[in-house]
Inverse folding.
């Protein structure tokens, strides 16, 4: 039995790992000639780390995961600590730590673990076809490939998704712009073992420690789409948007390298129930494109892969396995997209009265409520 895996991102590589565990051959096709992940880093929460362990890649998380032992919110204007607490109770409750990681390093190590030379790069999918014999992928370079079934992990701009759904989806602008990148850990910005977030005015500045003595940072600002801003204006733009904010934020802005800082207009896609059409299944962002506001984008792709493997462990009948995968995932991923959307709106001042109420709650937060929310999200995964 052979699967065609479309996409060599986190979703595609984890899907290949899960199918390999079930003795299924995988041919992996990646659109770009050279991997350049969008975004500097990402949060792999405990559910995602469990999935990596299950797929045989836990050592990658050990190498790349930063020492994130505490969580704090601070007033963006004054720098005053609103709440600060240990994440140890969360780790004890769910049985695994969270791991903020470099996205480029994670994807590169997953590819190396699989075998870089066996992945076909520069294969951008143009269309797909399927019949009783299997599936065929047609690529823009004029080549094609056949297999018994297909896992489409080709991202938020998925070409395969239209075939599966029967219609074109529209990406929804979430209302804010995100700048992200990496800087060396500087305790004048934030403690090196803490996820620190500054909030005010419906804006957010967040810093997470990753491996090799680096901070992953991101800035969020509610803005209209299509502004004439790019890497050449990063320092000026952030200095203007965060004028008057606390000194650690100013120190962070001064430390940024514009050439390695990403600017992204954040979107998601309205959740849908159909993840499978016959012998083609959507996985990762192609199946559930979400905002990053609860840190579950990468984690949900890893969960997809684990469930996919579990379904093929139950039956080698392709149609039944893929339908089981769809049934087990469609409610979970819809819930995560909508949770992220709700958190996005509160964080970014869609209703400033509601956002201000959240700020007030943070000033009385002991950590219990936040940890319980994180625990509930993590516990919804397949390896809880």
């Amino acid at each position: 039995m052979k699967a065609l895996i479309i996409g060599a991102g986190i979703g595609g590589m984890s899907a290949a790992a899960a199918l390999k565990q079930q003795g299924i051959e995988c041919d992996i096709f990646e659109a770009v000639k050279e991997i350049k992940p969008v975004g500097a880093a990402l949060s792999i929460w405990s559910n995602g780390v469990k999935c990596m362990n299950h797929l045989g890649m836990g050592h990658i998380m050990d190498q790349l995961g930063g020492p994130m032992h505490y969580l704090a919110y601070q007033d963006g204007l004054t720098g005053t600590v609103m709440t600060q607490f240990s994440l140890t109770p969360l780790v004890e409750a769910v049985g695994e730590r969270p791991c903020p990681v470099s996205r480029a390093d994670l994807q590169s190590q997953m590819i190396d673990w699989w075998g870089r030379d066996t992945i076909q790069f520069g294969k951008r999918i143009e269309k797909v076809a399927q019949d009783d014999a299997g599936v065929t992928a047609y690529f823009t370079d004029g080549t094609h490939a056949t297999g018994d079934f297909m896992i489409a992990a080709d991202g938020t701009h998925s070409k395969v998704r239209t075939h599966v759904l029967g219609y074109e989806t529209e990406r929804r602008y979430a209302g804010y712009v995100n700048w992200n990148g990496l800087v060396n850990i500087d305790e004048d910005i934030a403690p090196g073992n803490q996820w620190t977030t500054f909030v005010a005015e419906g804006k957010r500045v967040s810093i997470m420690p990753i491996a090799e003595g680096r901070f992953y940072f991101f800035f969020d600002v509610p803005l209209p789409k299509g502004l004439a801003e790019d890497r050449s204006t990063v320092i000026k733009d952030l200095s203007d948007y965060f004028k008057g904010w606390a000194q650690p934020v100013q120190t962070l802005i001064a430390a940024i390298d514009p050439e390695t800082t990403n600017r992204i207009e954040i979107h998601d896609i309205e959740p849908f129930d159909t993840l499978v059409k016959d012998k083609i299944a959507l996985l990762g962002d192609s199946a559930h494109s979400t905002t990053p506001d609860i840190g579950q984008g990468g984690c949900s792709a890893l969960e997809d892969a684990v469930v996919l493997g579990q379904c093929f462990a139950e039956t080698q009948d392709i149609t039944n396995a893929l339908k089981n995968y769809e049934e087990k995932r469609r409610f979970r991923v819809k819930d995560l997209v909508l949770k992220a959307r709700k958190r996005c709106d509160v964080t970014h001042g869609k209703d400033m009265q509601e956002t201000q109420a959240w700020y007030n709650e943070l000033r009385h937060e002991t950590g219990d409520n936040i940890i319980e929310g994180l625990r509930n999200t993590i516990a919804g995964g397949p390896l809880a």
Residues 2-171+268-380 form a domain with the FAD/NAD(P)-binding domain fold (CATH 3.50.50.60). The chain has one domain: 2-171+268-380. The two ends are 30 Å apart (CA to CA).
